[in-house]
Amino acid sequence: MAGIVVQNIERAAAAVIAGLAAAGVATVHEAQGRIGLLASRLRPIFPGARIAGSAVTISAPPGDNWMLHVAIEQLQPGDVLVLAPTSPCEDGYFGDLLATSAQARGCAGLVIDAGVRDVRDLQAMNFPVWSRAVFAQGTIKATLGSVNVPIVCAGAAIDAGDVIVADDDGVCVVRRADAPSVLAEAQAREAREVAKQARLAAGELGLDIYDMRGTLAARGLKYV
Amino acid sequence: MAGIVVQNIERAAAAVIAGLAAAGVATVHEAQGRIGLLASRLRPIFPGARIAGSAVTISAPPGDNWMLHVAIEQLQPGDVLVLAPTSPCEDGYFGDLLATSAQARGCAGLVIDAGVRDVRDLQAMNFPVWSRAVFAQGTIKATLGSVNVPIVCAGAAIDAGDVIVADDDGVCVVRRADAPSVLAEAQAREAREVAKQARLAAGELGLDIYDMRGTLAARGLKYV
Amino acid sequence: MAGIVVQNIERAAAAVIAGLAAAGVATVHEAQGRIGLLASRLRPIFPGARIAGSAVTISAPPGDNWMLHVAIEQLQPGDVLVLAPTSPCEDGYFGDLLATSAQARGCAGLVIDAGVRDVRDLQAMNFPVWSRAVFAQGTIKATLGSVNVPIVCAGAAIDAGDVIVADDDGVCVVRRADAPSVLAEAQAREAREVAKQARLAAGELGLDIYDMRGTLAARGLKYV
Amino acid sequence: MAGIVVQNIERAAAAVIAGLAAAGVATVHEAQGRIGLLASRLRPIFPGARIAGSAVTISAPPGDNWMLHVAIEQLQPGDVLVLAPTSPCEDGYFGDLLATSAQARGCAGLVIDAGVRDVRDLQAMNFPVWSRAVFAQGTIKATLGSVNVPIVCAGAAIDAGDVIVADDDGVCVVRRADAPSVLAEAQAREAREVAKQARLAAGELGLDIYDMRGTLAARGLKYV
Amino acid sequence: MAGIVVQNIERAAAAVIAGLAAAGVATVHEAQGRIGLLASRLRPIFPGARIAGSAVTISAPPGDNWMLHVAIEQLQPGDVLVLAPTSPCEDGYFGDLLATSAQARGCAGLVIDAGVRDVRDLQAMNFPVWSRAVFAQGTIKATLGSVNVPIVCAGAAIDAGDVIVADDDGVCVVRRADAPSVLAEAQAREAREVAKQARLAAGELGLDIYDMRGTLAARGLKYV
Amino acid sequence: MAGIVVQNIERAAAAVIAGLAAAGVATVHEAQGRIGLLASRLRPIFPGARIAGSAVTISAPPGDNWMLHVAIEQLQPGDVLVLAPTSPCEDGYFGDLLATSAQARGCAGLVIDAGVRDVRDLQAMNFPVWSRAVFAQGTIKATLGSVNVPIVCAGAAIDAGDVIVADDDGVCVVRRADAPSVLAEAQAREAREVAKQARLAAGELGLDIYDMRGTLAARGLKYV
């Protein structure tokens, strides 16, 4: 089944992608009904990055990073590389050379359910990565994988062109077709939260703002 | 058994709590006979925080953060929220809204054997958290837990009002009744270490300062 | 078998060690044929450190840091302490007092397949550590281990006097006898990469620079 | 997005399913190009079971087994229940009562990326389960999930009606549409292996049967 | 704090203990409100054992099994040894000699959040153990711990004399004072389940037996 | 560095190897000073096997089992295959075909810090394996490794010709040169234990047999 490169993928509108980046992972995840999170083992290699972009997906054999070179050619500015190994692997598929190449093509970052290396250089370049490991173990270029095929990355199903949102909370995927409506709901949610946040900051309690006292009593909560 | 909120808990004296914060986790742990550490899976979401406070304990169902709202009402300034799920869970129970609310009540921080989210906001607010995961997974509000009952959090037994000490080394609990004597021993220990540190910095060896050479030889250590 | 301290170990030349530090873990690992990495569970306690030094090895019982005192006496300026427990352990073997002592002897850092504590102090002292855990759990001084004997640390076989290279990517060991040739190959590799990096930064593709298109086609890669 | 039950799903032919069960996980996985394995954390609760069946998929909240009751109504004889929690969870979703109910409907077994309990009873009933944990932790019935929607279970994407193959080696999914061709390839593969197995049993070497000596020499393998 | 042996502990009535053993872990856990489970990392070293007994608790240093000898003297027939190391450890604290000694005193089994060894001998002796690891790593006898003090074992708080219930599903603790009422509830629960099991076995659905259809519809479950 | 096959290795005497198998892992580990255990993550794929044999070592790339074919040619009757991947990997390197081939050459078993598959067949053939995973994931034959070179397997350094002892407790390595003396000590140890076991079985306490009461009192143990 491996050995396929899908060249023309559809992407969400740039404004939608930018809006999702601004909303961030936690809000987007809530806005789309609490789905789409990648497993918490994916962590940023440095703090502070907030990105969103269209997924260029990579299915790669364990310990073989050949398909990254293939995938980089498929990048358009703002895209996010998303790599899932075909069996669990923490080898360092990606380092400063590949990051230089990806960044030159406008790549916004990498999400990888495996390892990366040269992390100091990547931070200096401000090339963000979310990975399961930092590990210098080298990889080979011997076996085909595929690019822009559907993958499962860190427990989430991802199609090429889906929107990847990533920040210090982790990584979330939004189906391309759902992106506009998820953005609308995310922005509505943020608007609703502004008022609540002000009331909470003033010392008002969630118990009152959300009117929970009656329900809690009905369920049998006892104060002693 | 769930569904209880204990409203009036006793706390250690503020000066004792402040002293324990200054001493830090490693010293306090040693001073009380090497007990009370929470498991190393609890890590700070940002470096540099050093706190101590009285535990407001929360026993919560997996994936259900309802009791956090209940617990926040029980906070007094300087308290620390301590949440243990009733079965293993890494969902994100706590984010910027709850942190805003807790901070408005004077909460010093959160210790949670589960996940948190909005970690960039929490750092911007300087609201410290020690958690087992950063994970945006949302939680529900459907099932009762309890507040200020005895819990086991990350392997340590904690009663409401016990003193929680947390810093970059992790988290330690001091029984409320023991807090004054533990502080005294911690401060004595620190005083003893000042002199030793100066001698070690001058190049003197622990082998000599602690007079270990004879014991080592008696045990059979051989230099070759 | 325990209870041995080897006093006079051979070390690689200082210039070679310095060169390996400058090359860094990923390059050194590649330069010596992709061997010698320690497991990815060893992580730096603070970012940014880059060191290399001759290994002073320690085989220590679980939860017993006595041999660290013995090892510190064996340090020469620039050496790196490398500790492997004889059974898996994450206790905090090492903190600010031992770091003060080691630093006074010129120690460049610690690599430990166990825990450390006082990490804020260690960072303030700029004493780098790569460890599997940060954990304040205290240790005892009751049982002999050995110093400067062959050990296996985090999955890598290490002899006293081997060169340890450590940075944000992790830790790598270079056999003492191989150090000069590995350095030469690492520097050659870096030289080769400079040109490639410039071409990649200019937007040229790895597919072309490394002439991969033919091979990929021959293996059956299909663009659709 | 939760709260959907798809009632009429298509299934592969019974003879195809039976053939895949007989071929077993390792052969089926190879026959379809080394894809479709669920993560190795799923293990059988007792040895010796070999099943295949059409997936009735369940997406369930953490710690909430309500949807299992809903799913059981959708079972047809020979089907396999496949449950993925929406966030990581090892609670015991399934025990003897649910197994009795499922077995009464002809269910062939359960694949669950969470926990089960009453495992002694399940073995006595000969109801096979592949799970990530054995854990008695009870679950609630408070929140909707979905049945027969696409899920990701233990890292594999599964649609309702896909064929699940499970034995002592783990669990593999075969896309419904691919099942006949995968079976054909699996049987061809088994036929090819019979002859090889006989030659290997007679002491002939894989090096010779597969004619590897030349390739190994060409790659530079040296005998010393 | 270590160095204490509490000699006279109270125990639950033998009939109550026997009743809890017969009910088993899952039922007992449910009967007492879904509390008291030890973490799922504790697994039986061989299948089929079902025991209950009064806890003789042991707090032991990492890699030091001295206190097991002390604890064995405190055993009365039917008791269960429960060992928690003071820091995480998987060394083999217990093997055939200690099992022989414990069995000679009437010990019903061992629950240990660490390792054991000689597991083939233990199975031949029919001495059941629930442990986090099987590991031959030897331990020393150098440092005091305590016997029959409160401990936290695999995440559960246990006092000496509490009732330990263990079977293939894992381990559960019942507070000594609660044991009679928990048994009564467990037996009532089992009685209730007999009828349900018969109905389920006859093919009736949980959806109907538990009258769930209305609630599901009210929550918005849609059949498509 | 890869690409080497060492053809003539020295082996320990058959009688010594047989004696070590009879002594078993726990006794051998103790007899050689508590060294040489492989990590507890290696578990037998079926219970009851007890073997010892000379190590034919394999260093293999991740996900590539080519070198197993090469290694099988180097087997002599009674040898044990020992495979360490060059980076962490749980793919299924070994199944029924390779086992047939290895068994035809007299191989006593396999120790592998990776995965295996066809475990039901392997049990039927009575071919014992100690592995870190059971996983059907297929491997490729594309990259050279080495045979009979020094390796680190599951944390233990192993040279070709060292004696591997494996049973239900795990795996231990004995240096070839040490094998006769380790066997002698193991047998002496077993002889000493026979008498102790009889006294313990008769109800005598370890506290008395090992004369511990005085030491415990001197250390401060208090009975209350």
Task: Give a short overview.
The structure is a homohexamer of 224-residue chains. Chain A is an alpha/beta fold.
Question: What would you note in describing this structure?
Answer:
The structure is a homohexamer of 224-residue chains. Chain A is elongated, with a radius of gyration of 20 Å. The first copy, chain A, has 224 residues and is α/β, with parallel strands linked by helices. Chain A contains 8 helices and 12 strands. In chain A, strands 2, 3, 4, 5, 6, 7, 10 and 11 form an 8-stranded mixed β-sheet that branches. The A-B interface holds A 24-26, 29-30, 34, 37, 40, 43, 47-48, 50, 167-170, 172, 193, 196-197, 200-203, 205-207, 210, 212, 216, 219-224 and B 3-7, 46, 66, 69-70, 72-73, 90, 92, 95-98, 100-101, 103-105, 115, 117-120, 133-138, 141, 144. Strand 1 (4-5) of chain D pairs parallel with strand 12 of chain E.
